[in-house]
Amino acid sequence: MSDPNEQVSSPDPYSGGGVTSPTSGVSRSRGDASPGAHLPPFQDLTDAPGDDEGEGEELFGENMEQDYRPIPALDRYDPAAMDDEQYEGMSIEDRLAAEAELKKRDREKGIAAGRMRRGLLYEESDEEDEPPSRRRRMAERAAEAGEGIEDEMIESIENLEDLKGHTVKEWVGMAGPRLEIKNRFRHFLRTHVDEKGHNVYRDKIRQLCEMNKASLVVDYNTLAESAQALALFLPEAPTEMLHIFDETASEVVFSMYPKYKVIVDLIHVRISDLPLIEDIRALRQLHLNQLIKTTGVVTRSTGVLPQLSMVKYDCSKCNFVLGPFQQSQTEEIRPGVCPECQSRGPFEINMEQTVYKNYQRITLQESPGKVPPGRLPRSKEVILLDDLVDTVKPGDEIELTGIYNNNYDGSLNTSNGFPVFATVIQANHISKRDDRNAIYALTDEDVKAILKLSKDKNIAERVFASIAPSIYGHQNIKQALTLALLGGQPKNPGGKHKVRGDLNILLCGDPGTAKSQFLKYIEKACDKVVYTTGQGASAVGLTAYVQRHPVTREWTLEAGALVLADKGVCLIDEFDKMNDADRTSIHEAMEQQSISISKAGIVTSLRARCTVIAASNPIGGRYDPSLTFADNVEEEDSVEKIPQDLLKKYILYAKNRINPKLHQMDQEKIASMYAELRRESMATGSIPITVRHIESMIRMAEAHARLHLRESVNQNDVNMAIRLMLESFISTQKFSIMKAMTKTFNRYLSYKKDSNDLLLFVLKQLVLDQKSFYVTKYGHDQDYVEVSEKDFAERAKQLNINDLSKFYKSNAFQLNKFRFDSKKKVICQGS
């Protein structure tokens, strides 16, 4: 303390009126006169300023209030500011009302508005009359350690990539990095241009508003090029990053189109073209809470349901409205105590003020072609929200980008006996896959090899020979399967009636004639194939059905084999084992390529645009081998086969890149052939021919044009289609009718038919007969065999083949080590 004899006085009073108080810590010399010289010094005086000038005055001490005690000698009042009028005392109610008015005035002036913490201005007890929603928001912002400050007061983080020891999720949740992410993403949306200098997302935002949509699709690759840090953080903390992206995109869109807020409350950012694709079978715990991309077929879908988004509750006792409460996907947030009456409920949802959003669950299953042999296909539940609902149907093959989350499932815990969490994918972006997407997988070298292969004059024969090369013979079946894989061109004349372009095939033959082998080959040769058997198939299993979800007890629509094979091939073995009712149920799918469902309140139509290839045994059929096993083994095909990998790419390219037109087709030839065939069928009493046979011929002609990569159908395609259709139709008749029709339509059946195979078969039969003669006569086999040309020519005439000179020069004749001796008029084999 200072010397008691040292006089202390206050500075001059303020001239503005009101009460003035002295300030401690100011000393004067002994000689200075002061009105307060006779007063004792302040008890809270500190040492003289000169003793510790570095620290300055201590304005807030333990006895700070002593500075403001009344000192009549020093306190001076401005007469103009004095009010001598007497006021009566205020009641407590009047005082509270006055304070409420003052606080209301302060809020209107902006003193207490915004995010500033109210505790700096008022005591906590003063906030009881505030709305509960405001108090809750202020408490949440105060707890978030920094989010209560305006964006202008937050220091931006320049080095966003430096996490400073935090995880990505923690770093993104902080105020500084969050603001920097918003600034960078806003800059990306406003400034990103393509190669031509066009602003990409300005055009996308304009199209979004023109179509009244709420989703802005952002390409991940362009984001990675322009903002690498954002692309790095996005897969690791997708929930937080997408929330920031949505806020920023909404600000950008609403700044460009302010009135768009009336239509959409929030713009959702959808991430497309994520580079890494994870199989459903490969999803593990390390993928949890990350952004993933996977593919599959939609097998089940629920109806569109309302999900709680912003919930308000009514207190049943005092009718006070609580909320809004932001609901999350993982847990339900409910109030515990009513702030008005302090009761603990019950609380009822306020239906009028609660905000809902669309909600739908689908099941995504592995694509049929990607399931390993002997394994069951895996599936995952997917949640669709907002504008993603009803974008897909059962049977659609999709690429899904979403957040892989886990949630509590009580049924799993009950069945397993220990805590197990179910996994679910929250969808962010969905794109439907079609065969055109597979075209992009072809490299330039593949396209060059395909175009080079198409210039081969014998390309059709080479492709036919490469189909199921391990199966000998059955050339007509191989040709039909090839054309079915290529398919015709779908038509919709005038937009009124759709005509399918897919071909359906029924293989009917004796047991053991490689029908199932053909189906198995097709299963491996195509990308999207569903294989089933008639023995275990039913009508609903092939089409679609409705059943209750085992947990939610909600009706769900599930797809059958034909729906799952949409834009692919459906193979049905043992077709004859199905009952008549089940076979009838797939007629709509085979002709109209759609399946109608009207059950349990679900009325819809699913697409089944697939080729159906079925195999069946004849009633009472018997195995009648036409060749011995030795002949099959020794047979060497003279046609050069195409590697299976290149063949698969060739068919894929031809089916999706080539769209042949019909303007050059010889329609008169098909019309005359149809009239003649119909007249012949009526005369002989055979199975009648219908208009569907004409449609089949047109589809096969288009498929044959695709096989040669032609953009138009020519006469060769029509002739081949007529021949294949006639062979199939005539083979289903009785033997007598078959013989008569074969003779009548021989000019069509002989088109481009390779007679060398028939002549080679006849020649081998003559060689076998000659060897059998030697064994019978001499008791041993003969290595050198001669066959008379006269006998061979007589056998050839029975097949309507008169010219043998081309056969003697063919590869088939030479590869089987035959020689023709023109002098002796014999055909030799061996040495």
From TrEMBL:
<dbReference type="GO" id="GO:0008270">
    <property type="term" value="F:zinc ion binding"/>
</dbReference>
<dbReference type="InterPro" id="IPR059098">
    <property type="entry name" value="WHD_MCM2"/>
</dbReference>
<dbReference type="Pfam" id="PF00493">
    <property type="entry name" value="MCM"/>
</dbReference>
<keyword id="KW-0378">Hydrolase</keyword>
<feature type="region of interest" description="Disordered">
    <location>
        <begin position="1"/>
        <end position="76"/>
    </location>
</feature>
<keyword id="KW-0539">Nucleus</keyword>
<dbReference type="InterPro" id="IPR018525">
    <property type="entry name" value="MCM_CS"/>
</dbReference>
<keyword id="KW-0238">DNA-binding</keyword>
<keyword id="KW-0863">Zinc-finger</keyword>
<dbReference type="GO" id="GO:0016787">
    <property type="term" value="F:hydrolase activity"/>
</dbReference>
<dbReference type="GO" id="GO:1902975">
    <property type="term" value="P:mitotic DNA replication initiation"/>
</dbReference>
<feature type="domain" description="MCM C-terminal AAA(+) ATPase">
    <location>
        <begin position="459"/>
        <end position="639"/>
    </location>
</feature>
<dbReference type="GO" id="GO:0043138">
    <property type="term" value="F:3'-5' DNA helicase activity"/>
</dbReference>
<dbReference type="InterPro" id="IPR008045">
    <property type="entry name" value="MCM2"/>
</dbReference>
<keyword id="KW-0862">Zinc</keyword>
<dbReference type="GO" id="GO:0005524">
    <property type="term" value="F:ATP binding"/>
</dbReference>
<feature type="compositionally biased region" description="Polar residues">
    <location>
        <begin position="1"/>
        <end position="12"/>
    </location>
</feature>
<protein>
    <recommendedName>
        <fullName>DNA replication licensing factor MCM2</fullName>
        <ecNumber>3.6.4.12</ecNumber>
    </recommendedName>
</protein>
<dbReference type="InterPro" id="IPR012340">
    <property type="entry name" value="NA-bd_OB-fold"/>
</dbReference>
<feature type="compositionally biased region" description="Acidic residues">
    <location>
        <begin position="49"/>
        <end position="60"/>
    </location>
</feature>
<dbReference type="Pfam" id="PF23669">
    <property type="entry name" value="WHD_MCM2"/>
</dbReference>
<dbReference type="InterPro" id="IPR041562">
    <property type="entry name" value="MCM_lid"/>
</dbReference>
<dbReference type="GO" id="GO:0000727">
    <property type="term" value="P:double-strand break repair via break-induced replication"/>
</dbReference>
<dbReference type="InterPro" id="IPR003593">
    <property type="entry name" value="AAA+_ATPase"/>
</dbReference>
<keyword id="KW-0479">Metal-binding</keyword>
<dbReference type="InterPro" id="IPR027417">
    <property type="entry name" value="P-loop_NTPase"/>
</dbReference>
<dbReference type="InterPro" id="IPR001208">
    <property type="entry name" value="MCM_dom"/>
</dbReference>
<dbReference type="InterPro" id="IPR027925">
    <property type="entry name" value="MCM_N"/>
</dbReference>
<dbReference type="Pfam" id="PF14551">
    <property type="entry name" value="MCM_N"/>
</dbReference>
<feature type="region of interest" description="Disordered">
    <location>
        <begin position="122"/>
        <end position="145"/>
    </location>
</feature>
<dbReference type="GO" id="GO:0017116">
    <property type="term" value="F:single-stranded DNA helicase activity"/>
</dbReference>
<keyword id="KW-0131">Cell cycle</keyword>
<comment type="similarity">
    <text>Belongs to the MCM family.</text>
</comment>
<dbReference type="GO" id="GO:0003697">
    <property type="term" value="F:single-stranded DNA binding"/>
</dbReference>
<dbReference type="GO" id="GO:0005634">
    <property type="term" value="C:nucleus"/>
</dbReference>
<keyword id="KW-0547">Nucleotide-binding</keyword>
<dbReference type="GO" id="GO:0042555">
    <property type="term" value="C:MCM complex"/>
</dbReference>
<dbReference type="InterPro" id="IPR031327">
    <property type="entry name" value="MCM"/>
</dbReference>
<keyword id="KW-0347">Helicase</keyword>
<keyword id="KW-0067">ATP-binding</keyword>
<dbReference type="Pfam" id="PF17855">
    <property type="entry name" value="MCM_lid"/>
</dbReference>
<dbReference type="Pfam" id="PF17207">
    <property type="entry name" value="MCM_OB"/>
</dbReference>
